[in-house]
Amino acid sequence: MRSFLLLPALALAMPALADGPPVPPVAAAAQRPLSLPATAQNAAVLDAVQRALADGPAGTRYGILVTTMEGKDLLAIAPDQRFIPASNTKMFTTVTAFSELPVLDASAQGTGVRLEKAGRGAQDVVLMGHGDARLSGADDCTQDCLTTLADAVAARTRKVRNVIGDDTWFPDERWSPGMSWNNIQARYGTGISALTMDDNELTVTVAAGASGELAIIGAPGFYTIENAVRTVSGTESAIGVMRMPGSDRLVLSGTIGAEAKPETLRLGIDDPARWAAWRLKQMLEARGVRVTGEVQVRHRPLTPADDPAQRGGTPAAHAPEPEMLAQLPALPLAEDIRIINKVSQNLHAELMLRRVGRESGSGSIADGQAVLHKVMGEAGLPEEGYFFADGSGMSSYNRISPRAAVTLLGWAARQPWGMAWRETLPVGGVDGTLRSRFHDTPLDGKLFAKTGSLNASRALSGYLVTAKGQTLIFSTIANDVPDERDSEATAAMDKALLAIAAAY
Which of 126, 245, 278, 387 is 20 to 30 A from residue 112's alpha carbon, by CA? Predict the structure, then answer.
């Protein structure tokens, strides 16, 4: 089965880049390796790497840097050029978070609920988010459960007015600059909010109906669904999904085979605070609590005060935290960093960047980037070697050089928490986003790296253990990959890494 997003023609237009127009492919001469010691081994490895990359799509722009753990360059191709890093961005976000973990863990809070006077003896239920990435709205939840908060309200009162979702812990920046708007309807582009539930994803199932009839749709009811999926003979399905940003109208079209298995669609949520409050209202009513009002939300608009540059370095002022009727415990943030890196979870990465920024700021993207910039300075990264507009890598504005990535990896390895952070990375042939790569090769279980995948961009940076048992640091990035040939660029980079591992 396959499903696809139906997008208006405007979706074909990519957003303008923050640091100038789209970068054209560079001339072959500009991609020549740096001057390295002229040894027979280096020459042979370079030749093998260049032959591997030649198997990739023509026109692809590659950047590679490989060093020893001590920082000695072994092989370099365009190491100081800037590339779109895709989810290699998460390395920079999670290293920043790991360096700040003692402070972050000390101040972390879980989602809470309180009762608020609403006049004439009425009271509202306020669900307050604190950046917790793992609140669950499942009825059979066992950890970090919204049901726990619903039980607390039901034990205190049998009647409330409104159910309010409050995500003012962070300013309202649901999408980062440079993320293509057509990604918003998908799970990987869901809205970012201090009040998050079920990864801010809505699950819709599409099952075959009678032949020639409409498909059977299963959905929680948060969106209004227009069903135009027809049941046809056979086992093949082609289901289209379209929802405009800001709309609660979801249009399903296409066909599903009468003998096909039901298909599950995971879709993004534009207003996560409303999503969580909507689910809490359902739970309260199921517990016999009468809700006389409606589902409402409270957002905090982004203002100049959320920019540390505008504040002149002055810490942001936080309003006193109201007393909670019940509050879930904060979960260890290191566990969440493992989720971010292993499966490349965009929402959790964005929340982590904002949590980092709230310690001295307001929880804005700019505040998070200010802390990241501080940590990158401590790591010795050249300022021209990186630029980020988000924490996950969905933004096409982001840029890194292979040297910046390798410098970061080398610095992280020397920190007391360096091995703990490395263990959050996917392992080649074993788990995470590298489970199906390097399997049954000499790098099976011996490559620990962060993947990256975005339109026309592929990246892989981390550590590998060579045939001689030496651990090397590497960063490989491909940009300007021709349409529909990303897998070929990935295969070429993997082949190059295998050649490097065999030689050293």
Answer: 245
Nearest-angstrom CA–CA distance, 458 and 493: 9
Token representation of residue 471: 């651990």
Reported residue count of the chain is 504
| Spatial contact of 443 and 464, defined as CB atoms under 8 Å apart | yes
- This prediction has a pTM of 0.90
Residue 420 has a CB neighbour count (10 Å cut-off) of 14
Rounded to whole angstroms, the Cα distance separating 397 from 388 reads 7
Place of tokens 């651990």: 471
Query: Binning pLDDT at 50, 70 and 90, where does residue 328 land?
Result: very high
Q: 248-269 in b/e burial notation, b at 16+ Cβ within 10 A?
A: eebbbebbbbbebeebebebbb
Task: Give the integer Cα–Cα distance in Å for 107 and 123.
Answer: 29
**158 pLDDT exceeds 90?**
yes
Predicted confidence (pLDDT) per residue in 277-295, tens digit: 999 999 999 999 999 999 9
Q: What is the DSSP string of 384-430?
A: GGEE-SSSSS--TT-EE-HHHHHHHHHHHHTSTTHHHHHTTS-BTTT
Task: Render pLDDT for 121-134 as a digit per residue (tens, 0 to 9).
Answer: 899 999 999 999 99
Radius of gyration for the chain, computed over Cα atoms and rounded to the nearest angstrom:
25
Q: Distances from the Cα of 27 to the Cαs of 24, 55, 62, 475, 497, in angstroms?
A: 9, 18, 11, 21, 23
Strands 112-119 and 122-128: antiparallel
Residue 240, pLDDT above cutoff 60: yes
